[in-house]
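Data availability excerpt. The first of two example chains:
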Amino acid sequence: MSGDVAAALREPWDSLRRQREAAEFGVWIFLGSEALLFAGLLLAFAVNRTLHPAGFAASGRETDIVFGTVNTLVLLTSSLAMAVGSEAARAGLRRLALRALATVLLLGLTFLVLKGFEWAKDLREQLWPGAGFRLAEPGARLFFGLYWTMTALHALHLAGGLAVVGWLSWQGWRGTRPLGSPAFQVAALYWHLVDVVWILLYPLLYLGGRA
């Protein structure tokens, strides 16, 4: 057994392959529970969109499609970088893995900063579904209630992913976690979930009413 493999192994596993399979199985169970959470919100959006088509269409035209589209491109690029980083880590390509993970961190932070600017613009335009909400169409408050809930929940998941990627990058850079550790592949699976959720949110929140 090589030194890198021995360093990556954790009890009770005697094989890195079995350890990786167990880690991936565990994270898939976790991702399934997260998918159910977002599925409930998406179902609520679909039902209310059917009940209030005019209000949801009018609200969709109020979202900022420039911010939404740029952030979609940012997140898709970060997902590509995450795939490169996890595969480079598996192959032992330290420099490429660390550079790819640094790119993921940069793009993830860019997404959150842009989202912060977008939320600030929404507040200035009185698109918070509370006192002073400026849209009168039936269902508009429901749209923006779901909009704020889903985008905030997504941002929290992305921030959690950034924390994990940053921690793994720091350990990989210091050499305290070998690149052969399954943690890099597990982090990649989580990051891709964040990406997939946004791919579902983007057409619902930004393209509805503009077709």
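And the second chain:
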Amino acid sequence: MLIETRAYARAGLLGNPSDGFFGKTIAISVRNFGASVTLYESPELIIEAQPQDTNVFRSLHHLRDAVSMLGYHGGVPLLKAAIKKFGEYCETQHIRLPNQNFSIRYSTSIPRQVGLSGSSAIIVATFRALMQFYDVEIPLAVLPNLVLATESEELGITAGLQDRVIQCYEGCVYMDFNQEIMERQGHGQYESIEPQLLPKLYIAYNTDLGKQSGRVHNDVRSRWLKGEPLVVETMNAIADVAREGREALVRQDIKLLNELVNRNFDLRAQIYTISERNRSLIEAARACGASASFTGSGGSIIGLYRDDAMLNRLFVELKKINARVIKPYVV
């Protein structure tokens, strides 16, 4: 039995990064890029390393580029952590797994470390493969929590639930992480939005700008936990952008959606340090007449464009700063 599963890149549209602060967000899955996992029964449990997991390099420069793109350990630790967390979940739920071993491998086309959630996509695809192999059903609303726990508890990655929710639900999702709701039911309130309601969207990314989001979030989180008024009020305002955006999508108020995307970034910039190269992505897109905000913690942006002429300008102008522009494919 050969099992193949897949999970897609994602982009935060509005409300990012308030998901880690009991806020609200809207995100989309981006099917232009994906991570896949292949699993089949074998005598021993084997995790097959991929070329990107190698410890053999052509040169010092090759090692430097590989580490910049993939981190120090590639994707194998993500598989190990997901398998461990899956086993622990089954134990706590008193699910007896059959004595079956498997071989597992992954592949991914998601640009790494640019805010499109390549790591969590590999973990989501791994959970889906394990669920199918062992015939275990994990409630959809619970699965993002397990994916987040895999990253935070096993790998020390600081992140929020937004990425994992959209990669598990797919499409376009409005998420409410109100603290009372989270504490009462153990997860947020998730509402799917018809992708047909989405306006003309573009995504631009530059792999040179990659960084680990945990490092980006740490200072703001400590300030938020201390109750610093600027951080608390700004994060609440970012969450409100998503609430207004949901209403604007329903009304098809494209003008307001444009304003909200820009407001999202401008609010973020009040409390986060934005590098010059990241800011140049925003400024170049806005100079073309498009709106622009980060899809995640930096390295890629998302926004609305008016027509094909504007989209072509985005292609040309962003290419000048080594950024690639795509139209996200959302189902």
